[in-house]
């Protein structure tokens, strides 16, 4: 059984992420989406909320599982028989950042691999941070994210969060 993981903050998940999930899931027996707790002071959504949104937005992909983890990605992978990390690339800047991480992981754990998938050009400018920025000013970011994110933001607004 070939298992891969797409790790990330997904705060919030965007249409660019979903496209990578769909394409990566077709290449492996099982794709795990791993939500990690970022150190940013004020995330838009809690880890639990992000997991719930991701489960809803990936329910159409049969071999996807959404989990959260707090420790080292490689520890999680070894403990759960996951052999490959999938990361989406939007630009050379993404690549430069990812290259270092992938090489450190390869040096420490030669049995683990990282693969990169180029995003579709129409998603190259979409990032969670842009969505958070627009949302913080009450702007319209509907074209960048799945419907479930819009509903979750509306729910937060109603609760005055
Ligand atoms: P991180 O906090 O690790 O940067 P993100 O949640 O921002 O996590 O992104 C997770 C993964 O998705 C990363 O590999 C990132 O490069 C990729 N990604 C982010 N935005 C897009 C996009 N618009 N299209 C394709 N991949 C993307």
E-strand count: 5
Structural class: alpha/beta
Q: Give the neighbour order of strands across the main sheet.
A: 3-2-1-4-5
Gross geometry: globular
How confident overall, as mean pLDDT?
94
- The residue fraction in helices comes out at 40-55%
Query: Which ligands accompany this protein?
Result: adenosine-5'-diphosphate
- Beta-strand content estimate: 15-25%
Number of helices: 6
Largest sheet: 5 strands, parallel
Low-confidence stretches: none
Following the backbone from N to C, one meets helices and strands in this order, namely EHEHEHEHEHH
Radius of gyration, in Å, reads 16 Å
The N- to C-terminal Cα distance equals 42 Å
Account of the protein in words:
The chain has 161 residues and is an alpha/beta fold. It is built from 6 helices and 5 strands. The protein has helices at 15-25, 47-57, 73-79, 92-108, 128-136, 147-158; strands at 3-8, 30-36, 64-69, 84-89, 113-118. Helix 2 packs antiparallel against helix 6. The longest helix is centred in the middle third of the chain and has 17 residues, at 92-108. The model has no long low-confidence stretch (mean pLDDT 94). Adenosine-5'-diphosphate binds at residues 8-10, 14, 16-17, 20, 87-88, 90, 94, 119, 123, 126-128. Adenosine-5'-diphosphate (ADP) is lined by residues 8-10, 14, 16-17, 20, 87-88, 90, 94, 119, 123, 126-128.
What features would you highlight for this structure?
161 residues, alpha/beta, five-stranded parallel sheet, binds adenosine-5'-diphosphate
